[in-house]
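Following up on my earlier thread - several people asked me to post the actual chain instead of describing it. Fair enough. Here it is, all 64 residues.
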Amino acid sequence: MYELKEELNIENMIYEIRGKQVMLDSDLAKLYECKNGTKDINKAVKRNIERFPKNFYFQITEEE
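Reply from S.P.:
Thanks for posting it. Predicted structure:
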């Protein structure tokens, strides 16, 4: 039997920050069904930093 999952609308997960379209690590964790949430996403980036362009990720400020 198939498990019913919450349908995620990717368009609602895209934000504009600093004039660029971005997705939050928490939303990526939901999309990729990461068991440990954002921890898994951030760990994957750190382990494979050479695979990601410098403009792939950034930390938002409190004001943003």
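The helical segments are 25-31, 38-47. That should answer part of your original question.
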